[in-house]
Specification:
Distance between the termini: 38 Å
Number of strands: 4
Mean pLDDT: 92
CATH class: Alpha Beta
Strand order of the largest sheet: 1-4
CATH architecture: 2-Layer Sandwich
Bound molecules: iron/sulfur cluster
Largest sheet: 2 strands, antiparallel
Radius of gyration: 17 Å
Strand content: 15-25%
Shape: elongated
Number of helices: 2
Length: 90
């Protein structure tokens, strides 16, 4: 089968710019991160690496994950240096 170039592909879904607050992407996930706050050292690695910026911070401490936007990618689990994040089935 010959692949189409981008000019031959019909328009499909259209995402409007500047709608990231309205698009609650959290519905996509199968797994969600669970943090053991007894072990967390608040190093902020998960906050920096989260591609959805859905880990809020207050007073230099990470808070719980905003599940409205967390897509369950598990990057935070991978990057946590002390492995206190576990992905669990939603
Ligand atoms: S990466 Fe791990 S230790 Fe660091 S703030 Fe996130 S959960 Fe806490
Ligand atoms: S699973 Fe992915 S999207 Fe969710 S908090 Fe972790 S890094 Fe962010």
């Amino acid at each position: 089968m010959k692949l189409k170039n981008f000019r031959e592909i019909k328009e499909g879904a259209v995402l409007e710019a500047g709608t990231s607050i309205e698009n609650k992407t959290g519905g996509w996930k199968t797994f969600r991160p669970e943090v053991d706050f007894k072990k967390c050292i608040h190093c902020m690695r998960c906050v920096i690496y989260c591609p959805d910026s859905c880990i809020p911070v207050k007073d230099k401490k990470r808070l719980g994950t905003n599940l409205n936007y967390c897509k369950g990618c598990a990057i935070c689990e991978e990057e946590c240096p002390i492995k206190c994040i576990k992905m669990v089935r939603k």
